[in-house]
Design brief:
By secondary structure, the chain is an alpha+beta fold. It is built from 2 helices and 9 strands, in the order E-E-E-E-E-E-E-E-E-H-H. Keywords: Coiled coil, Membrane, Transmembrane, Transmembrane helix.
């Protein structure tokens, strides 16, 4: 097992998961996992609180010298943790696999320690950042000229923008779905009206023909 954020096979950026914590709102953090070897490397993400987080992809295979993005989403929470302290942890396991291995082809014991394979692990801590803390850091950084405070503000602002963009995209998709449903209903309604008008017209023609037939001299 190696240190936080890096091992012999992969590197992870950032080395700590930071979430903007607001009640009843989701938040996410992206991890960039890079393969530092000439081999194919498989990885798996585990957490001490699987019900709180949604990880995609949680398992994958990275080609030599390539990288991938793992998105970790903190589900909406109903209450604040004590003192805004988080004890959750993540573990990213990695191991070398045969060339051109696909994630669906990974054996079940790929990440089992007693499988005889070399398995490396990285531990990642989790921290929560509250909007009020962000505001105080902003004021303190402005007064003291603290560069770290400005960097923290920039990170929080980016997290907010990414969260708002995700929410906006979800709302847009829901709106487009509603529009498709309405168009489908309108199309069905228009077809019914056309059919009814056609039946009525045929009825009028038949009635007119019958009227002419009855009115004609025998």
């Amino acid at each position: 097992m190696s240190g936080v954020g890096e091992n012999q096979l992969i590197s992870i950026v950032p080395d700590e998961l930071k979430f903007l914590f607001e009640l009843e709102k989701q938040s996410y953090c992206d991890l960039k996992v890079a393969n530092k070897t000439e081999d194919y490397v498989a990885f798996k993400v585990k957490t001490t609180s699987p019900k709180k987080y949604f990880v995609r992809p949680n398992t994958g295979v990275i080609q030599p010298w390539d990288s991938c993005i793992i998105r970790v989403t903190l589900q909406a929470q109903r209450e604040y943790p004590p003192d805004m302290q988080c004890k959750d942890k993540f573990l990213l396991q990695s191991t070398i696999v045969p060339p051109h291995t696909d994630v669906d082809d990974l054996p079940q014991d790929t990440f089992t320690k007693d499988s005889g394979k070399t398995l490396t692990e990285c531990k990642l801590k989790v921290s929560y950042i509250s909007p009020s803390t962000t505001q105080r850091s902003s004021e303190s950084g402005a007064i003291n000229g603290d560069g770290n405070g400005s960097e923290t503000i920039s990170t929080i602002q980016r997290l907010k923008e990414e969260r708002d963009a995700a929410v906006k995209q979800t709302q847009q998709l829901q709106h487009e779905l509603e529009m498709v449903k309405r168009r489908r209903n309108q199309s069905n309604s228009g077809l019914s009206l056309k059919l009814a008008a056609l039946v009525g017209l045929i009825g009028l023609i038949i009635g007119f023909i019958l009227k002419l037939t009855l009115a004609s001299p025998t």
